[in-house]
Amino acid sequence: MPTSCSDVGLRWFAFQTRPRAEKRVHALLRSTSFESYLPIVERISQWSDRKKRVEFPLFPGYVFCQVEREQISDVVRTTGIVDVVRIGGQATPVRDEELDSVRALMEGANRTGTEVHPAHFLKPGEAVRVASGPFEGLEGTLTEERGSLRVVVNIRTLRQAVGVQMDRRHLVSAKEAP
Prior knowledge:
This protein is globular. The protein is of the alpha+beta class. It has helices at about 20-30, 70-75, 95-110, and strands at about 10-15, 35, 40-45, 50-55, 60-65, 80-85, 85, 90, 125-130, 140-145, 150-155, 160-165, 170-175. About 15% of the residues are buried.
């Protein structure tokens, strides 16, 4: 895998897929000459009569494909792909270090049996809303204190604040919240 950040040569790009088409797109890309990566997590799903281990994409709606910039339009023509991920209108490669980290995380999780869950991309200082769990509906600011994530609720009129430690999977950005 290339490690330089130049725009020349093979680079990893993220491609958006149609809903629930990630596995099909991944198989199509692999059947061609394109290198494709789809991180998959297993979870136990509960039905009324049974439990079953089910595979889900770690990043729903996305697959990674290693291509040269000139080949992006060929990949986008693949059935099930909507478009390449763009920033500022430009197809933007995924940094090799980020993809290496995802691979290492997936290998460690598979080796240890640890469950991996997608999380919202949140930064300390960001306004957040609790989307699920016992504090659902609470709004506050995400902070990090000694390695733990906390939601702090400010009461401006009293010039006081209260915080609660929160699992990141219950949080969404206040900008995205309905």
